[in-house]
Design a protein that fits this description.
CATH topology of the largest domain: Heat Shock Protein 90
Largest sheet: 5 strands, antiparallel
Radius of gyration: 50 Å
Oligomer: single chain
Mean pLDDT: 81
CATH class of the largest domain: Alpha Beta
Low-confidence stretches: 523-530
Number of helices: 15
Length: about 525
Amino acid sequence: VLGCAIDLANITAHYVATIRPSKTGYAWLIDETGMVLYHPNPKWIGLNLKDIVLEMEKKNIDISGVEDIWRAMEIKGGGMYEYTFFHYPTEVITKKLLAFASVHFLNRRWITLVCSPYSDVVYLMSGTFRNTLILGSVSILLVIGATIFLLRMNKARVKAYERSVWADRVFVAHKRMEAIFNGVPHYLVMIDSHFLISDINQRFCNVCMKPPAYFIGKHCYKDFPSKERICHYNLIQECFKTGKILEDRNWKLEVMETPFFLDVSVIPLFGSKGDVESVVQYAVDITEKKALTEKLIQAEKFAAIGQMSAHVAHELRNPLTSILLNAELLEDEVDSEEMDMKEVLSSVRSIKDEIERLSTITEEYLAYTRLPRPKKQILDPVEEVNSVIEMMKQELNKRDISFSFNAEPNMPKVFMDRGQFRQVLINLIKNAMDAMPSSGHLNISLMDRENNLLLIVKDTGFGIPEDIRRRVFDPYFTTKENGTGLGLAIVQYIASAHNGWVDVESQPGSGTTFIFSVPFHVDGEKEAQG
């Protein structure tokens, strides 16, 4: 066994106590636990550095930087730090510099600390170094300082490069967004939470014949004439409140007394805190489209009037011709000396029948041209179907047509115009009766499918060919000798007016099925509330 004894007092006296980094600077020695092995102040020898610091803090002595130094000594082998502490022997709180280095010996770690007041360091740097030890200490400080400086310089250079790269990227992104913003073939305005215009695209400026600077910074509503306010104030206000994308169709804007019609969308832009910081008003010019649509509608109206006039003339001509013929026969019988009452009564009946036919034709045309907006109410579809069947039962029996009615249990109520619902069912039943002139079977069903009511009317008639099936809902189209071609057109109109649809399925010789669908009460109630 090899033993080794260390004379700590001799080591500190020869190698630590003799270190003088400056005029009043000194060195001291601690172990890895913080125990002071040597210090110029003999009262500190044997004490723990942590206890010394804790005692000073209890006395509210203003010291700083010691905790940072202690953490550095725990993880580093050396370093240089600035701190505020007692400076022996004056015991005055002094701003000081400290450098430390670790030595490992026999599984022990000793830390040599060299400290100097700032004033001494300044003095040493202004003159020549007085001894080799001081020169070595300063050299260490300079190396450490230079290393830190180079690291900071390199870090600053990297940050400057990163900032430059990000600045270039932001600039490119800004240019791209600016090109998109100004290149969009619609009108864009960006408005902040104070309703001030923060940006406007070039296309909008071109329409208004003003530069962007004329608009930016102005209140989009208050700073413009009432007819030339370029923002949809109510829509934007609601967008800031709800944070939702909102739309308005056919919004009117006047620019220099020229009307423009726009489809407007207001899009919220959220900030980092989740609130709406600004909105973008996106407007599509539909002025030309609106004018063209109105012309098309007008043309369609004139075409419909012409078609209807021709159809009315055709429908009225035959009854009128028959009435005229029977009136002449009646006149001849009246003028005759031997008047045949049977012939007279026959002519009168024929005239009466033709007048009733004219009345029916007139009523159908009036019903089609004067269809009112639906007066929707909550009604029981099962009850209404039973009522219509009861009303038409006699006519069905007269034509030798059997019928059946099926409804799913617990059928929900439907929200629609009662009279128009009955009109749909009557028209579909009459259409089925015409398809079964001799006899047949009529089935009516009510179903609930995905929150929609399905009214299904199925007959066992001769069916509809495919080329005719595509046109059965066209106004005035009919294959019946005395038909007006308006019954199914009215059904389709009523379906559309209730946000529904109607369709037909048929094969020649296999009968025909008409399917009429409208939303139930829940959807209809939402529509009414909206």
